[in-house]
Every structure is written in C-alpha cells, then in structure tokens.
Amino acid sequence: MLARSTKLAAALRPQTSKLLSRSFAHRVNMVLKEDVAKLGFRGDEVSVKAGYARNYLYPEKLAVYATEANRQKFKVDQESVDEAQQEKEYELEAIIHRLSNIEVEFKRHTPVKTDVKLTSEVNAQNISDMLEKNYGVIVGVARIHLPTPIKTLGSHTVKVRVDDAIEAEYAAGAVETEDADASEDDQKKGASKKKWVSLAIEIERR
C-alpha cells in the first residue's frame, strides 16, 4: 500500500509543478494610478504577475486592472492634466512678461563717510515682498538665490527660479540720491543720506 502511494505521488509531482509554474507565470495588465519605482509612471499600462497585482498594486491603490473603462477614465484624467499644464505655462509666460518689464527699487541709507556700505541690507525676503506688493508677482524666498544679502551699492545679480525650467535674473545696480532732509552740517557729522538699489530684471531659459 505504501509503495503504491509513493508511486502515485511521484507520478503527480511533475503535473503539480507544471500547474504551480503556470500559476506563478500568470500575468495581468494594470493601469498605474501613481508612479511606481522600476515599473512605470502614472497612466502607464504595465504587465505584472497576478500575485503582485492582487497583493500589492491593487490593495495599495497604486493601480487598477486594465479594463476598457479604466483606460477611458485615465484618458480623461490625462487630458485634464494636459489642460492644467497648458494653463500653468500660460501663467508662467505672463509672469515672465511682467518680470521683464519692471524695475525693482529699494531705498536705503548709507553713512556719508563710507559712501558705499548700506546701513540696511537687501535680502531675499525684501525682494520677495517687493515683487508681491508692487507687482503682484509671488516668488517664494526659497526660489530667490541670493548667497548673501546685498550690503553695498554697485552691480549685483540675483537669480530667481520661476519654475524648474525658467530663471529670472535680477541684475542689481545702485542709484544714489541725496537726502533732502539732511542738512550740510548733519552730513559732515556722518549722518546718513538716502540711496536707491535698483534691480533690473532679465529673463533667461536653460
């Protein structure tokens, strides 16, 4: 009896192995809802093992089965994404146009004797606030590349990132103006007189 059971098990083993191999080799098509590392990007239709789809992609809401309905649903979503991207590009072009036609100026004091050094520096926050207040252009401080605050008159360059592909370059020059309220005696004593730091803007693309 034992010998017969052993022979039967041996005979069934190859068939069982083939069935298991077929089961593991079974693949399904999925449409990705999110970017998945080493697999694809959102909207891609990919072929994966059934177990991977069933146990990970689908329950984690990373993908849906590639039915015609899901393909059409994603297609509609992708069209919306394209429209939003196009609208963003229009907005960026409008920002670029505005930046290329304005000049930002800051009023600062400098001690008369030094004639160059500012008593109050110009920093990234100043630039960001001025752009929003006077021109309605919102550029976050993190996107203003100013290694050190501007502390002197003269020519300076400040790069501002509008997005990942576009940079606005602020070329800063200084214009000196006398403080009308300061008397000659005050100036001789080292009183401050008003100066202007002008930021002219240039646009460049990478």
Short précis:
By secondary structure, the protein is an alpha+beta fold. It is built from 5 helices and 10 strands, in the order αββαβαββαββββαβ.
Tags for this model:
alpha+beta, Ribosomal Protein L9, domain 2, five-stranded antiparallel beta sheet, 10 strands
Please tell me the total number of domains.
2
Summarize the biggest pleated sheet.
5 strands, antiparallel
Order of adjacent strands in the largest pleated sheet: 4-10-9-8-6
CATH topology type of the largest domain:
Ribosomal Protein L9, domain 2
The helix/strand class is: alpha+beta
What's the number of extended β-strand segments? 10
Number of helical runs?
5
